[in-house]
Design a protein that fits this description.
Number of strands: 19
Distance between the termini: 61 Å
Number of helices: 6
Shape: elongated
Number of domains: 2
Strand content: 25-35%
Radius of gyration: 23 Å
CATH superfamily of the largest domain: FAD/NAD(P)-binding domain
Structural class: alpha/beta
CATH architecture of the largest domain: 3-Layer(bba) Sandwich
Largest sheet: 7 strands, mixed
């Protein structure tokens, strides 16, 4: 559930039309805004304050910042965007849609927030991220981000050597198991009714991965609240300290329906994302997308890099539009002589 009060100091929305509105204040959105603000573009980041990695204690796999709490990275990012004149506004987008273009044909977009505030922009960068949809196993969600993890690169070192269980959600869980096997000698694969062929069972056996076909009833906890294991139908508990789950990853689309951005399914029914092309371009003129909203597998570093690339691409498009406008004005002035 999104927070209703700002977890950080929120800037005021500016009057008039800004160059770019960035929807989403995570790594992709803030880095895109940084590139734009450093190019002297007026940019507003609209951020709901509910990042995907909020439950995690630290971010990993990105040099220099490895081990930094996610909240600290975002705090620094907001400061840096503001240093160059960008604004970061707490709020949820209620609607976003194309408006009438300017008289020279330059696109315009109207972004309305849930509290009724409105901002108009020439370009939009969608960096809303995604939401992880967990399987409906009782007791699982309460351990998300701690005893329940999804990424061997984000959390693997921290759970190395522990008794780990893989809760199968589909074909992607097979590769998941092989990756987590690198991290522990004690790995159990719970099929949860998902078919596992004999060839894969043989491969698992060769790596010492145990397979449990009995259905999973619930996740159980110790008295101190930490994850203790998995209870099967019939009552037997398989002790586990960590569970890995390949989540279904759904791009956050709330409030963006009016932009009519094309979506596409992920392989193996693992979710949906915004379709995008080079540098985050979309089929909608004037709208770009970056980060987990279009690349669900991107870690923080990759998402930030995608945001920077999209920001540079947007600035280039604006520079061309500005030049076209100036040229048209100069020709009009000459014709009037």
């Amino acid at each position: 559930m999104a927070v209703t009060t700002s977890p950080y100091a929120s800037d005021a929305l500016p009057d008039g039309t800004v160059d770019v509105v960035v929807i989403g204040g995570g790594a992709a959105g803030l880095n895109g805004a940084l590139m734009l603000a450093r190019s002297r573009r007026s940019v507003v980041v609209v951020d709901s304050g509910s990042p995907r990695n909020a439950p995690a204690e630290a971010m990993h796999g990105f040099i220099v910042l490895d081990g930094t709490p996610p909240a600290e990275i975002l705090r620094r990012g907001r400061e840096q965007v503001r240093r160059y004149g960008g604004r970061v506004v707490f709020g949820e987008v209620a609607s976003a849609e194309a408006a009438d273009p300017s008289k020279d044909g330059d696109p315009r977009f109207t972004i309305t927030l849930a509290d009724g505030r409105i901002v108009t922009a020439r370009r939009v960068l969608v960096a809303t991220g995604l939401k992880d949809v967990l399987p409906g196993v009782p007791g699982l969600a309460e351990h998300w981000g701690h005893g329940v993890v999804h990424c061997p690169y984000c959390h693997g070192w921290e759970v190395r050597g522990e008794p780990i269980g893989i809760l199968a959600t589909g074909p992607a869980s097979i590769k998941h198991a092989l990756l987590f096997r690198q991290l522990t000698e004690d790995l159990t694969y719970f099929t949860r009714g998902v078919h596992l062929d004999e060839a894969t069972r043989a491969r698992f056996a060769a790596r010492g991965i145990r397979v449990v076909d009995t259905p999973v009833r619930e996740v159980v906890s110790d008295q101190d609240g930490t994850l203790a294991g998995v209870r099967l139908t019939g009552g037997r508990v398989v002790p586990r300290r960590v569970l890995a789950v390949a989540t279904r990853m759904e791009a956050r689309t709330e409030g963006l329906e009016g932009l009519k951005l094309p979506m596409e399914d992920l392989p193996d029914d693992m979710g949906r994302r915004f379709a995008s092309g080079t540098a985050g371009t979309t089929e909608v003129p004037g709208v770009w997308v970056a980060g987990n909203a279009t690349d669900p597998a991107a870690q923080v570093g990759a998402a930030a890099a995608a945001g920077a690339l999209a920001g540079a691409h947007i600035n280039s498009a604006l520079a061309i539009a500005d030049t076209d406008t100036a040229l048209a004005a100069a020709r009009g002035a000459t014709a009037a002589l």
